[in-house]
Structures are given as C-alpha cells and as structure tokens.
Amino acid sequence: MQAYLAELIGTAMLVLLGDGVCCNISLNKSGMKGGNTVHILIGWGMAVMVPAFSFGAMSGAHFNPAVTIGAAIRGGMSWNLVPGYIIAQMIGGFLGAAILIFLYGDHIAATDDDATIRGCFCTGPSIRNTFLNFMSEFVATFVLVFTLASIPAEAGASGASWILVYGVIVACGASFGGLTGYAMNAARDAAPRFAYQLLAPNKGHKDPDWAYGWIPVVAPICGAAVASFLYMALQGMA
After folding, report:
1. What band does 56 get if pLDDT is binned at 50, 70 and 90?
2. Tell me, what's the pLDDT at 162?
3. Cα–Cα distance measured from residue 169 to residue 65, given in angstroms and rounded to the nearest whole number
4. Which residue in 103, 147, 186, 219 has the fewest CB atoms around it within 10 Å?
5. How far apart are CA 9 and CA 4, in angstroms?
6. Residue 207: how many CB atoms within 10 A of its CB?
7. Is the pLDDT confidence value at 226 over 70?
8. Mean pLDDT of the chain
C-alpha cells in the first residue's frame, strides 16, 4: 500500500509540476506567458526528478505505466504489483491535472483557444502522421527505459540516479519534443487528457483528440518492452 500511495502522490506531483509549466507559459494572463522551450525542458526534467527524490525509496519512483511494465519484464518487480501501480499512476495523473484546472481556472477562462488549453494537459503531434507519431513516442520511451535499466545500482542507492533521470528527460525533450511533445507516459497524457475532457470548461468545441490519444498510451509500452528485452539480451551476452 505504501508503494501504491507513493506512485499515486508522486505521479500527481509530476503532472502538477510538468503540466503546470505548460499552463504557466501558455494560458492568457499568466505572469510567465510566453516562456520558451528551455523553460519547458527544465521544468519537465525537474517535474520528474523532484517526486523521484521524495518517493524513490518507497516505490522506485516509476510514475509511468511503461516504466512499470519494463521493470516487470526485467524481473525488477513482481507482475502482481503491476496493476496496482498502473491504477495508482493513472489516478495520480488525473488528480494532478484536476488541481491545475482548479488553480488556473481564471486563466483557462481567459484563454479562448481550446487547443491551447488541451495542450497544457496532454500532447499532440506537430504534423499528424500516425506511423511517425507512434515511432516518435516509441523511440523516446525506448531511450528513457533503456537508460533507467542501465543506471548502476550504486547510483540508485545514493540517490544520484534521480539526477540521471533528470538528464534523460531533458535530453529526450530536446531531441524529440518538437515531434509529439514526448509524452512517454500514459499517466502523464491519458489521465490528464481525461481530466481535461471532464473538468475543463467548454470553449465552444472541446475535443480531447482521442483519435491521437491512444498513441501516447500504446507506443511507450511498446518502446519500454523492446528496451527491456534488448537490455536483458545484452546483459546475457556479458
């Protein structure tokens, strides 16, 4: 139960801090509206690292169904724990987004473009191409999960691993963020997308875009699985 609560609260914090960056620089009347991509990269990296430091010892700080599934494939956790982890992560992602919708309520009301509001809570492609959009999320999550699997145990024990996690999140954003927003995480995308659909005010045509929304769910899991199998194959050759 401690691990499940850690995943729930940690994922809520991740979304609060990560999607909070998007709200902060995108919504009208925000004092930081107009921030740039560096703001986003640093903010999202910190959004993952801060709760990881808080909850890493309790749950492993997955905060991401793809990371959880990858860990189970590699034998790093029991498959019996996977459903509970994923449920906790999805609830946490929804709660984090719901809190932001409340906090930024006046700013959402002052923003007329519904696509801008949706973009604060979930990702979308800069050019809609199903195959390439899928591959973008696949490759970004492959890099994330392979890196996590490769972090030495000594770094994990010392807490230095969370600084490395910050590095890989920023690196993936710098390299792939312009393609699909580098979701890499259903709890960071699908759960806030659902919160937006249910709780955000309707600005005339509220579209959660589930026609695209399945990609940030399926592609990261596929990327995590391939990364985990490749990592195990390379370890077996050592």
Report:
1. confident
2. 81
3. 16
4. 103
5. 9
6. 11
7. yes
8. 93
Domains of the chain in start order, with CATH, are 2-237 (1.20.1080.10)
| Residue 125's pLDDT band (cuts 50, 70, 90) | very high
HEC per residue, the chain:
CHHHHHHHHHHHHHHHHHHHHHHHHHCCCCCCCCCCHHHHHHHHHHHHHHHHHHHHHHHCCCCCHHHHHHHHHCCCCCHHHHHHHHHHHHHHHHHHHHHHHHHCHHHHHCCCCHHHHHHCCCCCCCCCCHHHHHHHHHHHHHHHHHHHHHCCHHHHHHCCHHHHHHHHHHHHHHHHHHHHCCCCCHHHHHHHHHHHHHHCCCCCCCCCCHHHHCHHHHHHHHHHHHHHHHHHHHHHHC
**Distance between CA 5 and CA 168 in Å, rounded?**
25
Model pLDDT for residues 84-123, shown as the tens digit of each residue: 999 999 999 999 999 999 999 999 999 999 999 999 999 9
| C-alpha to C-alpha distance for 36 and 27, rounded to whole angstroms | 13
